[in-house]
Structure formats: C-alpha cells, structure tokens
Automatic annotation (TrEMBL):
Spans through the membrane: none
Species annotation: Xenopus tropicalis (Western clawed frog)
A GO molecular function held by the record: deoxyribonuclease II activity
UniProt cross-references to InterPro entries, sorted A to Z: DNase_II (IPR004947)
Catalytic activity: Endonucleolytic cleavage to nucleoside 3'-phosphates and 3'-phosphooligonucleotide end-products
Signal peptide: 1-19
Protein name: deoxyribonuclease II
Catalytic class of the enzyme: hydrolase
EC number: 3.1.22.1
Family note: Belongs to the DNase II family.
One BP annotation, GO: apoptotic DNA fragmentation
Keywords annotated in UniProt: Hydrolase, Signal
Length: 354
C-alpha cells in the first residue's frame, strides 16, 4: 500500500529535482524566470558616499525595485546565487557554459572583439543567460565567486533570463553577431552537433559571412517574450538611434557610459534618441550619469513600455563594435527604469526635466 510516508519522500525528491534545474535564482536561491539588478555607484550627486556594492533588485515574482540587504560581492546576492550554480558544477560533462567579457579578469580590454559581457550556463533541459556591464567580471570558475574592486565606483546593470534548451540554439546564432571575447567555456562532445556555433565561438572562430544585424524573439522558460538585437562590426552606426528606436517605432531615453566623445541626442531620424543626464533612485538620492557605467534605454512614451538592457554605449568608437540588447515590454521593468529618469538632454543639448 502506498502510504503517506512514501508519498512525502517522492514529493521531496521531485521538489529537489525541480530546485536542481539550472535557472536564474532569487536571493533565497529559489528558481525564477528572470531578474534585473542595478548596482549603485559609490558616489552620488547629493554628496553621500556608498559602498559601491549595494544594488537594487527586482524579479519575475517581486516586480518592483527592492534595496537588497546583501551586497553584490557575496554569494547571497542575486548574481552570486545564480553564478554559484556554474562555480559548483562547471567541471561536469553534461553542462555547457561560456563566460565572455571585452575586459576579462586581470587582463586589459580587448578592442578586437565585441563590446559585450555575459555568462551562459545550461544543460539539455534549460539554463540562464546573464547579460551585464561590469568589466573584469566574473572570476574564472576555479577561482570561485567574487566581484572586482574596479566595479565599485560606477553604476552597473545585469539581467538574467531563464531559457529552455532549444532557445540556446537561437542565442548561439545571436552571439555570432556579438563576437564575444570568450575567456572561459566548455561545450562537451554530446552538445557539439547541435551547439556547433557555440563550440566554434569557444575555439575563437571567425564568421565573416554574417550580416550586419540580427533581431530575434526569445521566450523565457515561463513564456515571457524578449527581443534580442544583435549588431555585428559590419553595422557601423549607433545601435540606439539607427536601429533600436526605429525598429521599435518609439523615441528612446538612453543611459550609457558618458565621456567627452559621447554621441549627442539624435533627432535626425523619425524616432529620436535622447541622452539621460540625471538619475533618481528609490532611496531618494540622485546622481549624474557620469557615475553610471550601465547601458539601458526606455521608451519616452508611457504607452510603449519598452526597456532594453545590454552592452553598448553611445560613443563614436562603439559604432564600429559589436554587441547587443535584450528588450522587453514588461510594464514592471519599464516602470522601474522609467521612474528613475529625472533629466535628459534634448536635441539642442539642453538639459530637460521630466
């Protein structure tokens, strides 16, 4: 007779199997469909100084900014939780992983490859793609999780999405356009037929036959729709003004690393791109975007609800670099980012208050 005890044992086994699935994780270590992190800068415009390790967090089950009680350099952080799966199991022959960054740990920046940063980790069931903006991150798997001291000063962003196995075939095609600077990866033999593109990227292959851009739809494990814009080095233009805004048919407010050579707000095309100039946080503090190394944009209109998070800056040199953005019309993500925009520069380069 099948008793209550046996049922409880089977239930616990089933739950442990679900929990063992590779996925994005929340700060409790539970599997989730996606999360977004905004690492706060060390310096804030109102005169206060932070640790450079604090961050805002939201996910598919908690859809508004929360000020995390953890710091991003700990394994209890959302980023730490998700990457622990890789660090604990990277040497197994039944999983695929790829870690790429144009500025790898302890290495000077690479300008030959894409201006792009991220981590893939999956098995034949599912896994995650984490896109971020932090140079020299993450550490090599054998070194364990950590966060670089160079990543403290400026604001940074990260987005993690859980995908089923078949979506990684599409992601692999997108990464041909990204041309990532891979510094650690593994594609075991059992995956090399279906994931041959990832295998070739791992080996440092070149793909001169690709087009200038590729846009695709990616569906998360729970069916949420994301668009991925992938730009190759053959697309010599600003990804925001020349492509994303025009394709999404909306004016965009753009946050990216600012420098003396930053491209000005662009109103030359049907849909305009405006540089964000000042950010306001849920903590009531504000900072100038000079202190922000994150790369994201939101539609100016509250009706369009577009938010894109990714790799490239509005900088003349990066019109020749490859990279991409993941975009969503999730209203909670849009509201969280849109509400942070305090000022932007209009087409005459004048600061304009929202």
């Amino acid at each position: 007779m099948f008793g209550l005890y046996q049922f409880a044992v089977l239930y616990l086994i089933a739950m442990s199997m679900v929990a063992a699935e590779i996925s994005c994780r929340n700060e409790a270590g539970d599997p989730i469909d996606w999360f977004v992190v905004y690492k706060l800068p060390m310096l804030k415009m109102n005169g206060s100084t932070g640790s450079g390790l604090d961050y805002l967090y939201m996910d598919s089950t908690n859809q508004e900014w929360q000020i995390s009680k953890f710091q991003i350099n700990t394994t209890k952080s959302a980023v730490g939780q998700v990457l622990q799966q890789l660090y604990q199991d990277y040497d197994k022959n039944n999983t695929v992983y790829m870690i790429y960054n144009d500025a790898p740990p302890n290495v000077t920046n690479s300008t030959r490859k894409g201006h792009t940063k991220g981590i893939l980790f999956f098995d034949n069931s599912q896994g995650f793609w984490l896109i971020h903006s932090v140079p020299h991150f993450p550490p090599y798997p054998e070194d364990g999780y950590g966060y670089p001291s160079t990543g403290k000063r400026f604001g940074q962003t990260a987005i993690c999405v859980t995908y089923q196995y078949n979506e990684f075939k599409e992601i692999a095609t997108q990464l041909l356009y990204y041309n990532p600077n891979v510094y650690n990866c593994s594609v075991p033999d059992i995956y090399q037929k279906e994931m041959w593109m990832l295998h070739k990227i791992c080996l440092g292959g070149h793909f001169p036959w690709i087009d200038s851009t590729r846009l695709t739809q990616l569906n998360s494990a729970r069916g949420e729709v994301f668009l991925n814009f992938a730009k190759s080095k053959y697309f010599i233009d600003d990804i925001f003004a020349a492509w994303i805004a025009q394709k999404l048919r909306t004016n965009m407010l753009v946050e990216s690393w600012q420098s003396r050579q930053q491209l000005s707000s662009n109103c030359s095309l049907q849909y305009h791109v405006y540089n964000i100039n000042r950010i306001g946080l849920p903590t009531q503090s504000t900072f100038q975007t000079f202190y922000d190394h994150s790369k994201w944009c939101v539609s100016q209109s509250n009706e369009d609800l577009w938010t894109c998070i990714g790799d490239l800056n509005r900088h003349p040199a990066q019109t020749r670099r490859s990279g991409g953005f993941i975009c969503t019309q999730n209203k909670h993500i849009y509201t969280a980012f849109r509400n942070m925009v305090l000022y932007y520069k209009n087409c005459t380069d004048t600061e304009y208050k929202i």
